[in-house]
Amino acid sequence: MSQESPKPKRQRIVFTFDNAMVTLATIVVIWLAYLIPQNFDFLDPVGKALGDVDLTDMVFSQFRNDQRSTVDTSIVLVNIGHASRGEIATILDRINEHNPAAVGLDVFFYNPKDPYEDSLLAASLQRTQNLVMVSRVDYKSSIAGKAIDDDAGAFDTLVTSNPMFQQQHATGFANLVIDQQAAFMTCREISLYDSCAGRLEQSFALKLASVARPERAAKAMTRNNELETINYHGNVESFYFINLDQALDPTVSLELVRGKVVLLGFVGDNESDATTEDKFFTPMNKHYVGRAFPDMHGVVIHANILSMILADNYINTMPFWLSIAVGLFILCCNVVLFTWVYEHIENWYDVIAVVAQLSQSIGMLFLIVLVFDKFQYKLALTPAIAAVFVVGTAHDLYQDSLKKIILSLYGRLKQRRNSATSHS
Fold first, then answer.
1. Residues in contact with 278: Cβ distance below 8 Å, sequence separation at least 6, in sequence order
2. Nearest-CA neighbor of 180 among 139, 221, 215, 212?
3. In angstroms, how far is CA 251 from the centroid of its own chain?
4. CA 143 to each of CA 162, 163, 363: distance values in angstroms, whole numbers, following the listed order
5. What is the DSSP letter of 237?
6. pTM of the entire structure?
7. 359/229 same-domain check
8. I want to staple 109 with a disulfide (CB 3.0 to 4.6 A). Which of 156, 161, 279, 332 is the partner?
9. Domain region containing 369
10. Is residue 193 part of a domain?
11. What are the tens digits of pLDDT across the range 65-118?
12. How many domains does the chain have?
């Protein structure tokens, strides 16, 4: 009676020593690529330039069409240009006549100037209902001109206007999340609230929302995000806009502001002014690579943040742990693929490796843009893209060099152990 020949054991292609070593080698290479620019000063400008590139900027600057960027009718921008304090008082009085939902004043009045105009402004501010004045969270050492450490901790000073103007009005900080040491950095995120001098301070936009739509402000707070990605609605043309001359002209009706949130701030000396004063780079910049000229004034950025809060229209971001998990999963899949190709169809290894890396990289970049555009969800696939980019080199490095070194060391250790055993 013939016996059946035993079935061959299924070869493991996933959990192997070689795959584990290639995975480890890839992680080490990625870690070194991240670490080196941070520890060599001559590479620092390169790191900052690359750090300011975000693929999702294309969605704001290139893909947002007119249908999706309609005018936000809940917000009115008023350009005060370089108006005098007396003129600002006149504008505030005219606006206050029409009962706006809230009024935000994005300008500091640090010191007294002309007594007559100061008294007019102070009286006008006192009469303005639902007023929020701008503030700034800062450090005492920074105000004194000293350098600030990265680990300085919570802010310890709230900078406001002079008491004669500030009075008892509500404040909201106007700090934007940008690198103050690199003027080319883009404003993509905002801190809606922060700790300052032992109390919780709200941002300028969030404070205005809490006055006009308290339920929307409460919803923003419950998200518990240290930073929010700004869902930009548009530039000046995406909001109701009143220029300085119109705001001062008694023949021009300001009925438009009734029931709306009004933001007063600097938007140039005229609507088409090309000044860089109080102007920042944003994802709305048409030149999303190699930006040369800032595109949005600070008060317009605050209007975009406020629009996001009032519309409950946030951008959600992939959490860090999920980004790492996805990156490890993609890395392991590629290691298994590369190892199988290397062992079974070695002649095609280089071709398949290049095609696999290129197609996956392009596919993930396309997926980032598509998901952000359609679902307003920011995929954090940098670890996955880095893994795909490096895994081929790490695999070759292991197969050509590291594997031989590891086997040689293992052989020597085994020989020494056998020798020690025989002598004992």
1. 265, 266, 297, 298, 299
2. 139
3. 43
4. 16, 18, 48
5. G
6. 0.84
7. no
8. 161
9. 17-39+318-412
10. yes
11. 554 568 999 999 999 999 999 999 999 999 999 999 999 999 999 999 999 999
12. 2
